[in-house]
């Protein structure tokens, strides 16, 4: 964040406290709201006037924190209903431009969507993504969904017998609606390919695509054997 | 509501709450026509097994204001229950959500009004 924004953070747990620290370091104005007296006292020793005691789902507490001039509200309490409510009133009552909610229980995700609360961050989901990333047997890793933009980003490992290994990127006829955006290569790190880049077995390729093209891409980058069979 | 001939289904996360339903009933809650499901209002399967899909009305009255506000909106927007009411203790939140189209009952407001009335009546009779 460029700095100079006013950000309200609901919840001074590990996430809220560290987030406040980072955002303050970057030159933003931050108010954290915490309703546990002990926690408040602990965090107040460091954050001083940047933390207020109170229940952030009470409207007067949000108003006391100056929600009407906030550029962003981040709800990271340990309670999903509280996070949903705080974001809903921030957005709909106080017309705050940007909200971010934390999802504690991934099963509550549909409720955040139903109430129009986005973006949301779910630690469980992030860890799952990381796990998938570390377990290559999946073959194809979902990196990012952009449902608003109707796009997805995936990562695939080119096997020894991949039919595109040895091909120039410029010669590939990628399925319509997909685009090769980056290559991660052993020893070279990641780079953006040019038409002259030659794909190698062992490359991890990142592609952006319209939803629903995963299978087609899997075949496209897959092994020759799979195509024959 | 059961006594008045309605079909009532209760959802509670505590299975022990069932006993409370049978206080002052001659028969069991189920024999009296009631239904009881263990679960929370945030679990869609629990709502479904409690019969939300054919409910004419839904009352969100857990002990958490924010929980009630969220599940009332789920009942309304997701399951299209025609009548939805939420218990909201905090008068400020109750007032705003009422304006947003969530029917609310604010026990705090009601209690204040009753207490005020009692006090004024007592004061009135005392002075006369």
The whole-number mean of residue pLDDT values of chain A reads 87
- Please compute the radius of gyration of chain B using only Cα atoms: 18 Å
CATH class of the domain at 39-127 in chain B: Alpha Beta
Helix content percent band of chain B: 40-55%
- The topology string of helices and strands of chain B comes to EHEHEHEHEH
Oligomer: heterodimer
Number of helices of chain B: 5
Average pLDDT of chain B? 93
Q: Which spans of chain A of ≥5 residues are poorly predicted at pLDDT below 50?
A: none
**What percent of the residues of chain A sit in helical stretches (DSSP H or I)?**
25-40%
Distance between the termini of chain A: 51 Å
Biggest chain contact: A-B, 19 and 18 residues
Radius of gyration of chain A: 23 Å
Helix/strand-derived category of chain B reads alpha/beta
Fold and architecture overview:
- The complex is a heterodimer of chains A (229) and B (128).
- Chain A has eight helices and eleven strands.
- With 229 residues, chain A is of the alpha/beta class.
- Chain A has two domains: 6-125, NAD(P)-binding Rossmann-like Domain (Rossmann fold); 135-228, Regulator of K+ conductance, C-terminal domain (Alpha-Beta Plaits), CATH 3.30.70.
- The longest helix of chain A is centred in the middle third of the chain and has 13 residues, at 80-92.
- Chain A is elongated.
- The mean pLDDT of chain A is 87.
- By secondary structure, chain B is α/β, with parallel strands linked by helices.
- Chain B has a domain at 39-127: Rossmann fold, CATH 3.40.50.720.
- Helix content of chain B is 42%, strand content 16%.
- Chain B has a three-stranded parallel beta sheet.
- In chain B, strand 4, helix 4 and strand 5 (103-105) form a beta-alpha-beta unit.
- The interface between A and B is medium-sized, with 19 and 18 residues.
